[in-house]
Amino acid sequence: MPNEHPKGLDLKGFLLRIDRLDAISRLQQAESRIKALESRVEELSLMESATGLPNHRHFADRLSQALRLAQRHGHIISVLLVDLDRFKRVNDLLGHQGGDEVLKQVAQRLQEPLRQGDTIACVGGGRFMVLLQEIKDIMAAARVGQKLLEALQAPFRAGARELDLTASIGVCVYPQDGLDAQALEAHAESAMYRAKERGGNRIECFTTTLNEVSLERQELESCLREALQNDELQMYYQPQFFMDGRLAGAEALLRWNHPLLGTVPPMKFIPLAEESRLILPIGEWALREACGQMAKWQAISPTPLLLAVNVSVLQFANGDWDACVAKALADTGLDPKCLELELTESMVMRQDHEDLVPLHRLREIGTRIAIDDFGTGYSSLSYLQRLPITTLKLDQSFTAALQSEDPQTSSENIVRAVIQLAHSLHLTVVAEGVETEGQRDMLELLGCDCLQGFLLGRPLPADAFEALLEFMSTKQFLKKGGRAPEEVRVVRTSPTGRNRGSR
Question: Record keywords: Coiled coil included (predicted)?
Fold first, then answer.
């Protein structure tokens, strides 16, 4: 009996030692799993989820290492920025899951022309960055860029759809174009934007001149971001007339007056607004401002006036732009039948069927749809029947060529055919850029419906357009044949241009 107690203690101690060893073993296993998970998390943090390629953080590490080696050994390295053209349309069309599937295919193709020691990373939004180590010169980098473009030439498949993709590529090299990672990436981006400005599907190499342009662009973009909140933007209105001289309405045109830069030409700031996506808030403001102004003018006009507003490609591609239009109409009280949205011919033709649904919704509430610059885009006219179009705006280049002395360069037959085609489809024709009496007479003879141009009136600020409207509403000023006397033309004149060229 006396020996039982010590024996019990020995057994309990033995079991405690076993439990302690087991706990230590389990703890070591847990620590090992945690380290493995941490390693995996770290690995995943360096990868882009959709493509499995290195992400921007990983690319930056690789670039820093390459720069240190290049500085030590005197090597030349290159950074390329590959940006898929209009990739947002792919996401809008296929959804993000479908867009990711396309990105995987793009990533696979872009890796094929690269050497084993090169690095390609997906940095989001349809953008890829490429690091080329130990190259001979910038021409060698440009040749790689060309191979990357060629790798994208074959169509991509996403489910039952077949897609054509292109890219804009910016190229820069160390040490010629920059000595650190930040400078090289910024300069590759500048070159890429130049490629986009020139139509996309091309390569541009960074230069000192390009750097100066890039800095100016950044400064102008910074000013443009403040322009809306600082009330520097203003709407002008170019009158449109029926053939008998009656005022039909006006096209709303955006103007920017900067306190230091002065009047910034639309041709300079409109493309910048689209590239920076500032066109979305600016376009929404412009639409609401113009609709509110036109709603007030309807009260003093003896007949309903039509307001024409330009729509940018980014607004068109934005999924809720039709809702923005409907809200602007509701908030300002403008009758939808008094609003005409202008889209360029090439813009409409680039859209798929699903992208055109907002047009049909807007047409259902009464809004009119115009094709601007008609005749300068695609040759296929089948879209005129399948789209809810109400108006064709004849491009000013055809108006200018109406009175050409050379029959081979005269646009008379083309204009006649366009007007006949439009009328057969029950569409209204507005001729842009009317600058001479001879052009006006010819358009009247050919059966055009409305005119717009410097002969009849330049774009006016709101108060000047209102004065014109009041004058025309209270005075009988029309001569026989619908021509306005000279004093009316003086009232309509105001020094300004148009956002896509003077008309």
Answer: yes
Q: What is the pTM of this model?
A: 0.59
**Strand residue runs (E) in 226-318:** 233-242, 247-258, 262-264, 306-310
Domain boundary among 184, 206, 228: 206
Which are the contacts of 258, defined by CB distance < 8 A and separation ≥ 6?
A: 223, 227, 232, 264
Residue 310, helix vs strand vs coil: strand
CATH classification at residue 307 = 3.20.20.450
The C-alpha atoms of residue 92 and residue 70 are separated, in whole angstroms, by 42
Tell me whether residue 136 is in a domain.
Answer: yes
Q: What is the Cβ-side half-sphere exposure of residue 280, based on CA atoms within 13 angstroms? A: 11
Closest CA to 283 of 308, 257, 302, 309: 309
Per-residue confidence (pLDDT) for residue 38, from 0 to 100:
59
| Banded model confidence at residue 290, pLDDT cuts 50, 70, 90 | very high
If asked whether residues 448 and 307 sit together in one domain, one would say yes
DSSP 65-126: HHHHHHHHHT-EEEEEEEEETTHHHHHHHHHHHHHHHHHHHHHHHHHTTS-TT-EEEEEETT
- 364 three-state secondary structure: helix
Q: How do residues 431-481 score in pLDDT, each as one tens digit?
A: 999 999 999 999 999 999 999 999 999 999 999 999 999 888 875 444 434
Last residue of a domain, one of 206, 229, 246: 206
What was the pLDDT predicted at 214? 62
